[in-house]
Design goal:
CATH architecture of one domain: Orthogonal Bundle
Strand content: 5-15%
CATH class of one domain: Mainly Alpha
CATH topology of one domain: Arc Repressor Mutant, subunit A
Order of helices and strands: HHHHEEHH
Structural class: mainly alpha
Number of helices: 6
Radius of gyration: 26 Å
Strand order of the largest sheet: 1-2
Helix content: 40-55%
Largest sheet: 2 strands, antiparallel
């Protein structure tokens, strides 16, 4: 059996990138959790239930959506600034001045030749 036939037989086809983008836009635009039927009505074209479920599972694996009893909601932060703490101010750190600036060079020479 060829590799392509093996893939076709075992791996189910997932949602297309266009479908993923449509679903993402619908979820991002809503301030509240949406049921799957509500998501279907917000999409510009029809999407099969299995495809929608596959897209939701894909986004759940990535940590972008949360699914609960009230529906599905987009939970990923908009920008890295929302997730990352502010950068540390390096000027506020204590400085270090070596008495012998050549000491580290001699040490490296001793260790590594």
């Amino acid at each position: 059996m060829s590799v392509t036939a093996y893939r076709r037989r075992l791996l189910p086809r997932g949602p297309t990138l266009e479908t993923l983008h449509m679903i993402e836009e619908a979820l991002r635009s809503s301030p509240r959790p949406l049921r799957l039927t509500e998501i279907k009505t917000l999409l510009p074209r029809k999407v099969a239930h299995a495809t929608l479920r596959g897209a939701i599972e894909h986004y759940k694996r990535l940590g972008c959506v949360t699914e609960g009893s009230k529906g599905v909601m987009w939970t990923r932060a908009e920008s890295p600034a929302d997730v990352l703490p502010p950068a540390m101010d390096l000027k506020s750190l204590p400085g270090f001045r070596d008495e012998d600036p050549e000491a580290s060079l001699r040490h490296d020479e001793y260790l590594y030749g």
